[in-house]
Design goal:
By secondary structure, the protein is of the alpha+beta class. It is built from 2 helices and 7 strands, in the order αβββββαββ.
């Protein structure tokens, strides 16, 4: 009887963990996104208040075209060899930013920390 109760408690904890993880990864509470390059914020948008638009962000001899449409954001086109950032689609969770490594571009939901410094390395 004790083993059955222990197993039931473990299964319950397991399912609560899965549900919590899904909630955190797939339901962003924020609408503010940052477009950064090498740790510097280039643009910051509140997706719920931004009109549909496209932004061309140059980098050296190439560029990325970022699209904001219907409260969502994505990289619409890129002049990089692999186009992984384009294939990532619309930004949907805090756990998975859109990244273009050749052009050093990152699109992600903004952090809660407003001071801009979250760590120091020496």
């Amino acid at each position: 009887m004790k083993n059955k109760i222990l197993i039931l408690i473990c299964v319950l904890i397991f399912f609560i963990g899965i549900i919590g993880s899904i909630f955190v990864l797939f339901s962003p509470k924020k609408n503010t996104v940052n477009i950064t390059r090498d740790g510097r914020v280039l643009y910051s948008f509140d997706l719920s208040e931004t009109e549909n638009r496209e932004i061309v962000i140059p980098y050296g001899d190439s560029s990325n075209t970022v699209e904001i449409k219907d409260g969502k954001i994505r990289i619409k086109s890129a002049e990089c060899p692999d186009k992984t950032c384009v294939n990532m689609g619309w930004l949907s969770s805090q756990g998975m930013p859109i990244v273009c490594l050749p052009n050093h571009l990152v699109i992600e939901f903004a952090d809660d920390a407003q001071d801009g410094v979250d760590a120091v390395a020496r």
